[in-house]
Design brief:
The structure is a homodimer. The first copy, chain A, has about 190 residues and is α/β, with parallel strands linked by helices. Helix content of chain A is about 45%, strand content about 20%. The interface between A and B is medium-sized, with 21 and 21 residues.
Chain lengths: ~190, ~190
């Protein structure tokens, strides 16, 4: 049996990764979703092992020490991590698994899984932003500079990805993501 | 503007390439079809420049001499070729173009277009054939040997392709081919 593919969906903050993933999972059932571990307390209605794996700080850092997360990060006051065993088990069963993660996290994942499929979600205004910033504008120079630097950083990051999708229309974005997942299942392994 | 992708659909004789292409073009209109040139006389109802480019033998071989075909071959008593100008013009306009062609033709295309997307269509019984031939069977040795050799040749050829689709169910095959075309439009150019 062939191993499944690990699909890493990433992109700048606020681009709509979570919304895209949610709609994908509604429409396309032939893929597993990677459940995160977290140290934040569970909220009402959240189920351990379904929404998150809820861990104490001690448990979390024991897993960090044992290299049991393929990536982890602190967000506000809580820690979040992607358990390696669940990902590897799913791939080993021949199933695809998708991971929605920020750019920094994707960089960590790439160290363990260089053969994963990396999809970069772009804001619809990204191209426009660049064009606009390259023209003489009315924005003050400092704001322009920061935006241009961010845009450049993101652009450089894009070169490490296999696919890019401009998240202009949610339905189209999900269609493209689905196409990428299906196409990669047909890829000839070299 | 980005250049379009050249999609090469190939596979063993009789695998159903023509049927797959026809259904794809009915369902997916965002791609051009490469029209062949031929020396065979036009049949009733066929339109020059739509069904084929009808050429005399002299015209055909002048184009061969001028490297104006990306591939050409003799089939029965007639010559067929894929005009380079039409393919390049379409790609230059940013449109995808699909070419349905036998394995030998795909090899010729690869010389001019190594960056094209090569899709190998496999018969549903291909895996089975191999398994069956590896067991001791009732077929006479010579037939078995020829089939095994053909299967092996085809398997080797597969390594030169980007994608494989087992043509088990026509609808599924067309879905996968469409997914490949859409996914490749999202690919990050390195």
């Amino acid at each position: 049996m062939n191993k499944g593919n690990l699909i890493v969906l990433s992109g700048p903050s606020g681009v709509g990764k979570g919304t895209v993933l949610k709609k994908l999972l509604q429409e396309y059932t032939d893929i597993e979703y990677s459940i995160s571990a977290t140290t934040r307390p569970s909220r009402k209605g959240e189920i351990d092992g379904k929404d998150y794996f809820f861990l104490s700080l001690e448990e979390f850092f024991q897993k960090v020490d044992n290299n049991q997360f393929i990536e982890w990060a602190k967000v506000h006051d809580n820690y979040y991590g992607t358990p390696r065993d669940y990902v590897d088990k799913t791939l080993g069963e021949g199933k695809d698994i998708i991971l929605e993660i920020d750019i920094q996290g994707a960089r960590m994942v790439r160290e363990s899984y260089p053969e994963a499929i990396y999809v970069f979600l772009l804001p619809p205004s990204f191209d426009e932003l660049e064009k606009r910033l390259n023209k003489r504008g009315t924005e003050d120079e400092k704001t322009k500079e920061i935006r241009l630097r961010n845009a450049r950083t993101e652009m450089k990051e894009l070169a490490n990805y296999d696919y890019q999708i401009i998240n202009d229309d949610l339905d189209e974005t999900v269609e493209k993501l689905k196409a990428i997942i299906i196409a990669e299942k047909c890829r000839v392994r070299k």
